[in-house]
Amino acid sequence: YVRFHLISPLIQQSAQNIVLFDTFVNILSHNLGEPAYEADVAQLEYKLVAGEHGLIIRVKGFNHKLPLLFQLIIDYLSDFSFTPAVFEMITEQLKKTYFNILIKPETLAKDVRLLILEHSRWSMIDKYQTLMNGLSIESLSSFVKAFKSQLFVEGLVQGNFTS
């Protein structure tokens, strides 16, 4: 079991940064779909989560091939690229996801409660409005570059691994 948290102070600076971060993580997951298929067949699991303060990478499975899967994820992260078509597809999916959260009273109530309790939190309405106002491909590219330049890493490795 390997879990790394790539923390960046950049994410919580604005609603636009949060939306760009969500877009980035979704495109990264999309890009990994085909290359990581063989790992899935070999019973290795991975998950990329857009956490509040950064990207959470979780990998688990048999230890002899786990570093290869983790390295694949890191390679795709460091050489991040996307096409305009993928960008459009992911932003449309995010619009639907955000809208679905907004129309459910229990999730909207949770969001409002957390907005009151947490110091620097952006509401789902802010994120949805930012996405509806439109994102540019250039803004995503510059955000990803800035994100990768301001990272703090926390990691946990459990299981049959040597130091």
From TrEMBL:
The keyword Transcription does not apply. InterPro entries: Metalloenz_LuxS/M16, Peptidase_M16, Peptidase_M16_M. Residues 1-129 form the Peptidase M16 middle/third domain. GO terms for molecular function: metal ion binding. It holds the Pfam family Peptidase_M16_M. Gene3D superfamilies: Metalloenzyme, LuxS/M16 peptidase-like. Keywords: Metal-binding. PANTHER family: INSULIN-DEGRADING ENZYME-RELATED, NARDILYSIN. This is NRDC protein. The lineage of its organism: Eukaryota, Metazoa, Chordata, Craniata, Vertebrata.
